[in-house]
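Proteins fold reproducibly. Take a sample protein:
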Amino acid sequence: MIVYDRYADLVFGTTLRFVRDRDAATEIVQDAFLSVWRRGHQFDERSGTLAGWILGIARNRAIDHLRAQGRRPKLAGPSGSEQGQPDPFTAINRATAANDEDAPGVALNRRWLRALLRNTLADMPAEERQVVILAYDRGLSQSEIAEHLAIPIGTVKSRTRRAMASLRDRLADVPDLWPESAGDHDGLQVGAQPRVTR
């Protein structure tokens, strides 16, 4: 199945980071794709993209699973954060942090978004991921990144362009990634450029 081959890794990685249980994630992904297979005739491309539709089905299944388990999701961090090292994805955590006043559904949707963004960044080439983290998490300018990494500023700029284009491409199919009226997202903003200094 072409659809499965194209989207299974994205859906599985995001679901696993959301539910933190490999067996549950496998079951949720199987259930989501079975639903896609059975209800494929209901997909309307005027309402959104196929990837967005599949991710929406998986998100709903994952939320149902967590509610049935009677627990909140715990996000799986990159392997380093599990070993007591700093989590390089704190910008995503800030951008998608749940507020204590948020309804449980809003908090779960934010956690799903965080899992999706973490999964997408984790799949990027290390050089591109590194400049994104330095720019958006640590707030470094492109010239500061160049100095920090001991590479030419032109290299930083090209890596940043590739990284942002990659994020836009990978996340283009995700519906309602950011609200229409949102400007600054307190951290990572898809499509935004870090500040440039010479």
